[in-house]
Design a protein that fits this description.
Shape: elongated
Distance between the termini: 91 Å
Structural class: alpha+beta
Helix content: 10-25%
Number of strands: 21
Strand content: 35-45%
Mean pLDDT: 85
């Protein structure tokens, strides 16, 4: 029993010290969070996934690491100018059971908007590195319906199986797929007959073609909110399939023909006036007519009358 006072003192010290932060540990946590924050750029965002655990509580919902990475990618596809910083570099770090809770004010800028949000991360040291187990903002924060949060992107249509277009888009002889991320439409305003309706979107009114092959960059089509994809096969003999994107409007439909490997258009957009030239399919407006040759047909107005005009294009 002579060791009881000593053991009691050690127990009290351990009990009182359990919530205190090792100064060296706090320094490493600060460095990790700073690096994570600085990675929120269009260039570095594709590598954010490595900072997260395999399963994460992400803005109130359980998500896998790939799902978090995809959401970060979509954020920068929707808002290429998005930036964030930790206001005054002020981090409040609290030691929890086996992890660190880091609270801070996140100042974001996107699409001409600046806003501050009380945010937090929970990080854990695992396998020689810090990883994130929770990310979110305070429940009482204002403007939580802003389009920069994951809940807004969950409403973006559709990344389901029936929207995937399969093909060999990077030329590696392995099948991959493309899908379209469309904007969420807020309102549609009717205009005079013969004119397209005025569309208001939540965020930017653009569509984005994304690819399962990691070496292919996404393609953004401005002003497109309803679409359809076409696999045009290999048109320029580079070993990769080209992709067609139909931009569908009430009185027009426009076919964009993309070289997926570099995101370049192979021809000027092919516009069809659907109020005059109805029920035209892909084969009616686009054909491969020879080695590295295509024939395109578009609507043109000549002497006040709409006609269909065809053109043979030699591909480089």
């Amino acid at each position: 029993m002579k060791y009881f006072p000593l053991m009691s003192c050690l127990f009290v010290l351990l009990l009182l010290g359990c919530n205190e932060i090792n100064p060296e540990g706090e320094k490493e946590v600060r460095q990790f969070v700073k690096k994570w924050n600085e990675a929120h750029t269009q260039l570095k965002a594709p590598y954010l996934g490595r900072d997260y655990m395999a399963r994460v509580n992400y803005y109130g919902k359980e998500r896998t690491r790939p799902q978090v990475q995809r959401d970060k990618n979509l954020l920068f596809q929707q808002f290429p100018d998005y930036t964030q910083r930790i206001l005054n570099d002020d981090l409040v770090i609290t030691k929890e059971a086996g992890s660190y809770l880091v609270a801070f004010t996140k100042r974001v800028n996107y699409n001409g908007i600046e806003a501050d949000y009380p945010a937090y991360l929970s990080v854990m040291f695992r396998n020689g590195a810090f990883q994130i187990i929770r990310e979110g903002v305070a429940k009482n924060a204002k403007d939580l319906d802003a389009p920069i949060f994951p809940s807004a992107r969950e409403n973006m249509a559709f990344q389901s199986e029936n929207r995937q277009l399969f093909g060999d888009f990077n030329g590696d002889a392995i099948s991959d797929y493309a899908t379209v991320i469309s904007p969420e439409i807020n309102t549609t305003t009717k205009t005079e007959a013969g004119s397209d309706a005025l569309i208001s979107c939540k965020g930017v009114c653009n569509s984005v073609i994304t690819f399962s092959a990691k070496n292919l960059e996404s393609i953004t089509i401005q002003g497109a909110y309803q679409s359809q994809l076409e696999n045009l096969k290999d048109l320029n003999n580079d070993g990769a399939d080209e992709i067609g994107f139909w931009d569908l409007k009430p009185t027009t439909k426009t076919l964009y023909v993309f070289n997926v490997t570099n995101g370049a258009l192979l021809t000027e957009p092919i516009v069809i006036n659907t109020s005059v030239h109805k029920n035209l399919d892909l084969i009616d407006v686009f054909k491969k007519t020879g080695p590295s040759k295509i024939t395109v047909t578009r609507s043109e107005q000549v002497n006040g009358k709409w006609i269909l005009k065809s053109e043979v294009i030699k591909l480089d």
